[in-house]
Design a protein that fits this description.
By secondary structure, the protein is of the alpha+beta class. The protein has a single domain, classed as Glutaredoxin. It has a 4-stranded mixed sheet, sandwiched between helices. Strands 1-2 form a two-stranded antiparallel ribbon. Strand 5 and strand 6 form a beta hairpin. Helix 1 runs parallel beside helix 5. The longest helix has 12 residues. It starts with 6 loop residues before the first strand and ends with a helix. This is Glutathione peroxidase. Belongs to the glutathione peroxidase family. GO terms for molecular function: peroxidase activity. It holds the Pfam family GSHPx.
């Protein structure tokens, strides 16, 4: 199995088979518009602009599973991302990314690469850990996606190379992307 076996709807409701990205490096990210990590859209767009002509795609998957931080419709999400962050990378329809209702793509990703913890030196890392322990302890169990802006790096052959938690800024991933090209 690989990421190429999955099909999802893009933000405009059109079916997209991920096999159309064969031969490209992918950064798959679950996103939200009302999250402390939302400014990472800017960094993701910078990565996309820097590497898109070299064979890299950033794929954004909005999710409302974490404190209802993505309540908008597809049009609202798309407009928010374009107006506030100039997002031009592909966005998809809102999906669940963890638990029983998680889209099979995110079940596959999170089962393939284990959760390694948040960077507690990140300004939000320790706070997020404490909030989850106190209010949502079930989220910390297992390897499922823990919060918005979890990122999965996929090589040109469709292999999952690495997982980056929300406390990893997109700029940190640039060097790893460059090595895969």
């Amino acid at each position: 199995m690989s990421v190429y076996d999955f099909q999802l709807k893009n933000i405009d409701g059109e079916n997209v088979k991920l096999d159309q990205f064969k031969g490209k490096v992918l950064l798959i990210v679950n996103t939200a518009s009302k999250c402390g990590f939302t400014p990472q859209y800017e960094g993701l767009e910078k990565l996309y602009e820097e590497f898109k002509d070299k064979g890299v795609e950033v794929l954004g998957f909005p999710s409302n599973q974490f404190a209802e931080q993505e309540p908008g419709s597809s049009d609202e999400i798309k407009n928010f991302c374009q107006i506030n962050y100039g997002v031009s990378f592909p966005l998809f329809e809102k999906i669940d990314v963890r638990g029983e209702s998680a889209h099979p793509l995110f079940k596959y990703l999170s089962e393939s690469v284990p959760f390694k913890g948040f960077d507690l030196n990140h300004p939000i890392g320790a706070k997020l850990t404490e909030i989850l322990k106190t209010n949502f302890p079930e989220i910390l169990e297992g390897n499922g996606v823990k919060w918005n802006f979890t990122k999965f790096l996929i090589d040109k052959e469709g292999n999952i190379v690495d997982r980056f938690e929300p406390t990893t800024e997109p700029s940190v991933i640039a060097e790893k992307i460059a090595k895969l090209l």
